């Protein structure tokens, strides 16, 4: 069957904040672009679920009035990646009913998954905006020397981070008016004067004149690219890229076609096509740390062949990608909730906290509201930053998660959550691999995890728990049922390294460098001229912080490389000041 062809300059696969960054930086880089712009098609396997494409769902006022009601939104947006097959029998099933025989694959479970090496809670989001429609919006920078690598020099990192923060609207002053923000900062700064306690960097802004917050997402990055007539960006939801096809001409390999399926389109005798062949000049896969290597695998790329299940190496050398799925890291997590100490609550009741608080006290007497601070006081967002001595990311706040809901008999204004994310070092043996037999719900190879913590990782995680307990003890007592606990592997949803980047070495060939990594510092896949990847999956080195901002840095760098190739003579992209051209270029270029 001959499929319809659709040409474009750039195909972006995935609509999360990384795909959005690529689109924005290609079409509207900071330096500005001339009115004529490349044609970009963005495909997303999930649906558009908000009025503004990719908007953060927590921007609905209802959820800001009751953050715990947002829990079901998060749960509904996450689809678990790998569920081991259950073999325990149902002992009360009627004898006449059919029952599973042994270890079989059913209900989307994965019979190839070892339960002892799984990331049980890892999940993907399939919707326009990806994870950014329900994330916490924490956007810290990685700490030099403790996280990440020197793939870029420090000057370049600073410029990339500054641009990423601009795109996603990162700020530290969002909660300056919050009474509890000021109280928690005061408590922790007094208790830990050497820890540089401060506001958590947030991709958000306060709504003027109201105790509401506009949380950033893909829609923030894209801005007006999806509006106007015609829109600069062709976003196609419920379209899944199933496979890439390649051609090699005069020794240069490129993606020739992307096979894309319209998941919702009916098929009839008159119109039997629910697939198209997109013919792009450049391709960006930004599907996240699991779905990006999955698409590469389904397109013929193969990792290191030390596993009998992998079969024979690919016939075409460019499809050999030993590091595919390797170097996987995921943060360990611990969590607790505390109820503020009585002495801190008295501080809330007696001290002057501003005009809003005074107005609330006049409106509600002690019997009506003993706490005597506004009911809509914004929840705190505080952090003790990563250091060499404390290599873990902290979020001391109140937010909606699939765990940590508050019992109704407790005043929510007295609750503080502590979430700690532990640094894990990359190891070659930790990986996600893909089945040659089983598929996921969308017909692509089933991902299977093989992940173990090292002794060092375990020791760091133990110290992290001790630190969380010490910090929690300064603020209050544990909420019953939310005492300190480790959370299921994968729940951080911060998997990195599965298509890891490496700085291009002028003394090595692509074939040599692909033995250690999947792409160069611009995120271009080794050996394929027009194929780029984006996401947490490209980040090299260890990671403790929320890595979204760092992944955006790589996307900015990749978009810059594509811009140059689309127009090497600067016909479309002309710098306002030639002396400032390539301000994001690293010293290796």
Q: How is this fold's topology laid out?
A:
Blueprint: E1 5-13, H1 17-27, E2 40-44, H2 61-65, H3 71-77, E3 79-80, E4 123-124, H4 154-168, E5 170-171, H5 179-191, E6 198-199, E7 202-206, E8 213-215, H6 218-222, E9 233-237, E10 239-249, E11 252-262, E12 275-285, H7 288-298, E13 332-340, H8 342-350, H9 355-363, E14 381-383, E15 392-397, E16 415-422, E17 431-439, E18 445-450, H10 455-475, E19 476-478, E20 485-486, H11 510-513, E21 531-533, H12 548-566
Parallel strand pairs: 1-2, 1-12, 2-9, 12-21
Antiparallel strand pairs: 3-4, 5-7, 6-14, 7-8, 10-11, 11-12, 13-16, 13-19, 13-20, 14-15, 15-16, 17-18
Helix pairs in contact: 1-12, 4-12
Short description:
With 589 residues, this protein is of the alpha+beta class.
């Amino acid at each position: 069957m001959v499929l319809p062809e659709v040409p474009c300059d750039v195909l972006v696969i995935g609509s999360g904040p990384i795909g959005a960054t690529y689109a924005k930086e290609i079409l509207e880089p900071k330096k500005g672009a001339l009115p004529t712009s490349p044609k970009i098609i963005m495909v997303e396997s999930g649906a558009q679920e908000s009025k503004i494409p990719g908007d953060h769902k927590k921007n609905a006022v209802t959820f800001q009035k009751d953050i715990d009601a947002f829990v079901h939104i998060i749960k509904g947006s996450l689809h678990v990646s790998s569920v081991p097959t259950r073999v325990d029998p149902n002992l009360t099933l009627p004898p006449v009913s059919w029952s599973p025989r042994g270890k079989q694959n059913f209900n989307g479970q994965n019979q190839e998954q070892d339960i002892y090496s799984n990331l049980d809670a890892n999940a993907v989001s399939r919707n326009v905006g990806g994870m950014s429609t329900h994330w916490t919006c924490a956007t810290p920078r990685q700490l030099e020397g403790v996280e990440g690598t020197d793939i870029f020099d420090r000057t370049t990192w600073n410029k990339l981070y500054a641009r990423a923060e601009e795109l996603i609207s990162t700020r530290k002053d969002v909660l300056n008016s919050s009474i509890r923000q000021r109280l928690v900062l005061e408590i922790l700064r007094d208790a830990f004067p050497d820890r540089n306690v401060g506001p958590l960097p947030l991709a958000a802004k306060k709504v003027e004149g109201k105790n509401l917050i506009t949380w950033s997402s893909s829609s923030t990055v894209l801005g007006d690219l999806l509006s106007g007539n015609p829109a600069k960006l062709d976003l196609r939801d419920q379209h899944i890229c199933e496979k890439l096809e390649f051609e090699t001409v005069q020794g240069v390999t490129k993606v020739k076609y992307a096979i894309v399926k319209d998941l919702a389109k009916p098929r009839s005798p008159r119109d039997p096509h629910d697939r198209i062949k997109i013919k792009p000049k450049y391709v960006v896969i930004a599907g996240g740390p699991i779905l990006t290597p999955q698409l590469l695998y389904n397109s013929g790329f193969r990792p290191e062949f030390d596993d009998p299940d992998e079969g024979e190496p690919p016939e075409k050398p460019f499809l050999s990608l030993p590091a595919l799925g390797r170097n996987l890291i995921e943060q360990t997590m611990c969590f607790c909730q505390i109820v503020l100490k009585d002495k801190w609550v008295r501080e809330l009741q007696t001290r002057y906290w501003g005009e809003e608080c005074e107005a609330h006290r006049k409106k509600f007497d002690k019997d009506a509201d003993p706490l005597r601070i506004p009911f809509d006081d914004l929840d705190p967002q505080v952090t003790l930053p990563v250091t060499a001595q404390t290599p873990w990311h902290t979020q001391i706040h109140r937010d909606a998660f699939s765990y940590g809901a508050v019992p109704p008999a407790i005043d929510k204004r007295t609750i503080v959550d502590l979430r700690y994310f532990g640094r894990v070092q990359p190891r070659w043996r930790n990986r996600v691999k893909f089945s040659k037999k089983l598929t996921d719900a969308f017909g692509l190879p089933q991902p299977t995890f093989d992940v173990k913590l090292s002794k060092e990782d375990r020791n760091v995680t133990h110290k992290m728990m001790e630190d969380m307990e010490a910090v929690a003890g300064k603020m209050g007592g544990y909420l019953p049922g939310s005492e300190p606990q480790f959370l299921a592997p994968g729940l951080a949803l911060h998997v990195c390294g599965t298509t890891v980047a490496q700085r291009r070495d002028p003394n090595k060939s692509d074939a040599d460098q692909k033995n250690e990594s999947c792409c160069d510092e611009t995120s271009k896949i080794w050996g394929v001229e027009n194929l780029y990847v984006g996401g947490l999956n490209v980040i090299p080195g260890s990671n403790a912080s929320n890595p979204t901002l760092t992944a955006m840095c790589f996307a900015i760098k990749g978009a810059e490389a594509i811009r140059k190739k689309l127009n090497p003579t600067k016909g479309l992209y002309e710098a306002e000041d030639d002396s400032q051209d390539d301000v994001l270029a690293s010293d290796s270029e």
